[in-house]
Amino acid sequence: MSLKTNSGPKSEPGIPIVVPRNRPRRLRSSEGVRAMVRENEVKPADLILPLFIVPDSRPRVEIGSMPGVYQDRVADAVATCKRAWELGIKSVLLFGLPETKDEIGAVSWDPTGPVQSAIRAIAKAVPEMTIIPDVCMCEYTSHGHCGVIVDHRGRKDVDNDQTLELLVRQSLSFAEAGAHFVAPSDMMDGRVGAIRDALDDNGFTDVGIIAYSAKFASGFYGPFREAAESAPQFGDRRSYQMDPANSREAMREISLDVEEGADMVMVKPALPYLDIIREARDSFDLPIVAYNVSGEYSMVKAAAEKGWIDGTRVRDEVLMGIKRSGADLIITYFALEYAEDYKKRKI
Ligand SMILES: [Zn+2]
């Protein structure tokens, strides 16, 4: 820092006034100047809106631990997509809650399933909307795990290679319904390559893959499991999701998915893993997606409800932090309310 000593008339004899030569505060002096030098912006087009689709036989229900987020029937999802499109949101991520579940989640590739029906209806009503179904078995299996359960040396575990075949079937079914991307979230080894090959072999070369590449075994998924009714019935997901302690392994997972043909890669959750997002941004040139997960959303909502924080301000700061860390796109349950405020006051 360069300093200039000024011993003008105001200074006491022997006590010089220090005059800084560099004054960063000049760039914060008014909203106009702050807007001129602002380095990052979160636009509605940066946000991906997650939706939970239930069969039409069920009512539309607000999720208890996620205020403002609903389990939607197909018609509700279409209405939400129309509103989202008007607000500048360009993409939705779909999760399905089926009528019935079984050991292998066979209902997930039923062409009349909730997600397939929603894809067709959204594509018809909002043709420009980019539709991204999540690909995983846990919403569809009776045991709530992300694949086929086998007995492995006296311990129940998800079999990697048998699960790949189911993920392929589900992906093809979503592509047939009209999905623009599929987003595998299971963390099985080799699934991006298996899905890419199957899409190409079946004429879906235009359907992309957004890979949940670095998905950590996280406590922040709690409210989602209520929303998607996908809690594991025994054990946990640590044999396939990543250990929160590992960042080098995250880079390896991402680079494998890139090699296998992923079009975009994802880090999930976002807030405790901003370093992973930054490292991914610096190491790879593909678009980086961050998932601002259910627990991250619910924490803000709960604290705001108690009056402990300003929920709107913290929401905007959370999304900006994820963007600044290097994410191009953010999957967030805040998408609609953020886009509404953005339109009203140009955040
Ligand atoms: Zn899963």
Instruction: Please identify, by name, the CATH architecture of the domain at 42-261.
Output: Alpha-Beta Barrel
Q: What small ligands are held by the chains?
A: zinc ion
Strand order in the sheet with the most strands: 3-6-7-10-11-12-13-14
Structural class: alpha/beta
Secondary structure tally, helices: 11
Determine Rg (CA atoms, Å): 23 Å
Average of the residue pLDDT scores: 94
The CATH first-level class of the domain at 42-261 comes to Alpha Beta
Percentage of residues in DSSP E strands = 15-25%
What gap, in angstroms, lies between the N and C termini? 34 Å
The ordered string of helix (H) and strand (E) elements is EEHEEEHEHEEEHEHEHHEHEHHEH
Largest sheet, described in full?
A: 8 strands, parallel, barrel
From the 3D structure, determine the CATH topology of the domain at 42-261.
Answer: TIM Barrel
Number of strands: 14
The gross shape turns out to be globular
- The CATH homologous superfamily of the domain at 42-261: Aldolase class I
Poorly predicted parts: none
User: Percent helix among the residues?
Assistant: 25-40%
Oligomeric state of this protein = single chain
